[in-house]
Amino acid sequence: MGPKELGKRIKQMRTKKKLTQAALAELVGITKSHISKIENGVATPSLVTLSKIAETLDSPMSWFVIQEEHEGLSIVRKSDRKENVAKNEIGYDYELLANKNFMSNINPTIVTVLQGAEEVEPYIHNSDEFIYVLTGAIKLIYDGVTYNLVEGDSAYFSGRKPHIFISNSQEVSKVLTIYVEE
C-alpha cells in the first residue's frame, strides 16, 4: 500500500472517531503538521508512529494495509506491500505482511533497518514483540542492555520496556517483527 492510501485510511478512522488532526497529533505525541503530511501521503509514518496512531484510534495496525479476504483468510500480495521508500523518524522501512481487519491482535512486519537509527532514543509501546533477523545483523537495545543479533537469531520481549534495534552491519538488515497486541 502506498503512502496516499495509508493516509486515507488514517483520515477515515480519525474522522470516524470525531478527532481533529490536532487532537490526534497530541494523543500520538507528534505535530499536527506531521499528521497532515501522513494523511496527505507526503510522509510515511514509522512503525512506532503507526502503532501509536492505531492504538489511539482503537484500531488494529493491520487495518491500515491492503488485503484480500476470503472466508477468514487474509492474503497480502507481495506486489501490494511495496516497501516504504521514505526514511521515517526512526530509520526503518517496513512492509506489513497481514491484515485481519479487526479480527487479529498479531501484526507481522518486515522491517528494513536503515543507517541513522543510532540517533533515536529507545521507545516503548503496549505490545509484546517478536523479532527474527532475516538478513544482516542488528543491535537490540533492551532496557539499557545491548544484544548483538545476526541472521537467524530471534528475540521475544515486552514493548513496555525501552527498546530499539539498530543496524550492526554494512549490508542491509531485514527483521521479521511480529507485534502481539493485547
From TrEMBL:
Question: Could you name the domain of life of the organism this protein comes from?
Answer: Bacteria
UniProt xrefs under InterPro entries: Cro/C1-type_HTH, Cupin_2, Lambda_DNA-bd_dom_sf, RmlC-like_jellyroll, RmlC_Cupin_sf, TransReg_Diox_bact_type
Q: Name one GO cellular component term.
A: cytosol
Alphabetical list of PANTHER family matching this protein: HTH-TYPE TRANSCRIPTIONAL REGULATOR (PTHR46797), METHYLPHOSPHONATE SYNTHASE (PTHR46797:SF1)
Keyword terms, alphabetized: DNA-binding
Which molecular function GO terms apply here? DNA binding; DNA-binding transcription factor activity
Q: Which organism is it from?
A: Heyndrickxia sporothermodurans
Q: Does the entry feature the keyword Cell wall biogenesis/degradation, yes or no?
A: no
What is the recorded name of this protein?
Uncharacterized protein
Answer whether the UniProt record assigns the keyword Lyase to this protein: no
